[in-house]
Specification:
Length: about 325
């Protein structure tokens, strides 16, 4: 499954529905929120520490020989684990792009393309159509492709590019989950119905962690690019949000994200992502924002500014994970 936004929730919805229908289902997603094990799931359960350690240790010679990256090493571990358990279905999320993603070694598959937007420009380019090409590269000899909801121009481009394929589009969002996740749930339903000819009865979809996740007064959402942030801002009630805490990795345009937020919300607090070498570095020349490097101090500032209203934490799943640990403690 490739795309810019919606991969994680679409993968989770798909795997949950397949499990609910009685099938043994493997799930590989990224990034994790609190623990690496969350990336490698079988029948709804994270890989155990014992199994993870065992498979990782057996993989070390290959990891060292081929100098695998962190993500490549985890992909290897996931595929080895799933090969032992022999699932009926495996739901695999690409990391970045698609063409050169380590998951793209799979040939026999049902390719899924979610929403495509500009992201990772340093690696994928600034052209939305070039980015689309990188995502579409996961499609090989596969005849059928599941397509999520996109802008008309991107949808038209994909239909023309894949003129020799059978494209099953997603045309209407589901209302069972908050926007924009209804688009991803609709896509997941299309996938499951195509595979099984039916959907599970009385299925209650659950959003993955840090996707409009509420913990007390905190709303955690990992929207991290302009497209995702636009959808998040559109879905939020400005009267109920008293402040926003945001950060991002340095390769993303934090000024665009804060511009989208400041159009609707007051009190924007920018911080760094602790322990993350890819984090943005403060100070930044962004007017109308409060900036604090220390995440815990920044969180306290956001709480004070919010008064009795809610606090939105966004811009990065890494930041959301950090804040989740802080408020859980």
């Amino acid at each position: 499954m490739a795309g810019t936004n919606g991969k994680g929730s679409t993968c989770r919805f798909t795997a949950d529905m397949l499990n609910a229908c009685g099938y043994k289902t493997a799930l590989f997603t990224s990034p994790h929120i609190l623990k690496t094990n969350e990336r490698i799931v079988f029948c709804g359960a994270d890989i155990s520490d014992a199994d993870f350690d065992r498979i990782f240790e057996s993989s070390v010679p290959l990891i060292q020989k081929f100098r695998l990256s962190y993500f490549e090493a985890l992909t290897l571990c996931a595929f080895l684990y799933f090969s032992e358990l022999k699932p009926d279905f495996s739901v695999i999320e690409t990391g970045m792009g698609g063409r050169f993603d380590s998951s793209n070694v799979l040939n026999v598959k049902l390719p899924v393309i979610t929403a495509i937007a500009k992201d990772h420009a340093a690696f994928l380019g600034n052209s939305i159509y070039r980015i689309a090409d990188e995502k579409l590269a996961i499609i090989k000899e596969n005849k059928t492709v599941m397509l999520g909801m996109n802008t008309p121009s991107i949808t038209d481009y994909i239909l023309k590019t894949l003129a020799d394929k059978s494209i099953i589009p997603t045309e209407k969002a589901c209302g069972a989950v908050p926007a924009p996740f209804g688009q991803n749930l609709a896509l997941a339903k299309n996938i499951v119905e195509y595979l099984l000819g039916r959907l599970p009865e009385n299925f209650v979809p659950v959003l993955p962690p840090c996707r409009q996740e509420r913990i007390g007064r905190f709303i955690l959402d990992g929207a991290h690019n302009p497209h995702g942030m636009h959808e998040l801002v559109k879905s939020m009630d400005s009267e109920k949000i008293g402040s926003v805490l945001i950060s991002s990795t340095a390769d993303r345009d934090i000024s665009k994200l804060t511009t989208l937020l400041s159009a609707k919300f007051r009190n924007i607090v920018i911080t760094e992502i602790p322990g993350n070498e890819r984090s943005l570095r403060l100070p930044l020349n962004i007017e109308g924002t409060i900036q604090e490097k220390d995440t815990e101090k920044a969180l306290n500032i956001a709480v004070e500014l919010a008064g009795n209203a809610d606090i939105l934490v966004s811009g990065s799943l890494y930041l959301c994970a950090c804040v989740k640990k802080l408020i859980s403690n």
